[in-house]
Amino acid sequence: MGKNFGRPSTKRSLPNVLNKKQLIKLFEAIDDSHIFMGSMIALFCGLRIGEVCSLKKQDIDLESEKVIVRKGKGDKDRVVMLPTCMKPMIEKWFRASKETDYYIHTTYKHKYIEGAFATKFSKALVKADLRIKTFKTSHGQQRHAYSFHTLRHTYATYLLEQGVDLYYVQRSLGHVDIHTTQVYAYISNKDLQDKINKAFGIKASSRISKNSNIDNPFNLLKLKFANGEISMEEFQHKYSILEKMEKTSTIF
What pTM does this model have? Predict the structure, then answer.
């Protein structure tokens, strides 16, 4: 999991990322709506904490599904694509919060200070049992496995696992040097994992039964559902289509 789970090293340091179960626990623990929405857009757009606190509503274009990040790291602007799944949530958020121009704000309608936001986020990490101590720096500062910036690491890693080109991940994160982005390629091992599972899976299935048909579309569909790759609704829909295709002797 990288240097955060051991002593600082001169070797390559890999950032920590949150898995699905940890993310669910984390967001269930956030009881402040502004911290929740700020954390959501950070996770789905890879924003830094300062970028979230400075983000204004006018820079979120729901029609074109784009977020303009103003004065990011290095005092540079960049455009980040907004996932479609975030639109309904943000639309409701805009209708419920009309007090200021900022995407999120404090109780007194002021811009969030990064430190205040980070403190509230850390409380959610504690509540979710994710405030894990690791090591102390030479100056005595306590380091932890996860922080708000972990959402950005999780975003980048997830994009690579879904097959997004490294160049586009670099653009989304606003990295000047693509070598900075390449660190996430070492975390994202989905292709390698798939190849290993396929190798072991084929051997295992051949030992279990020589007559089993692993290419059968029904079996593949059931396997995807069992692995959590598709929902119950999608499974039922596709299964019914396959049944109709089989009845009409359509080639799959």
Answer: 0.72
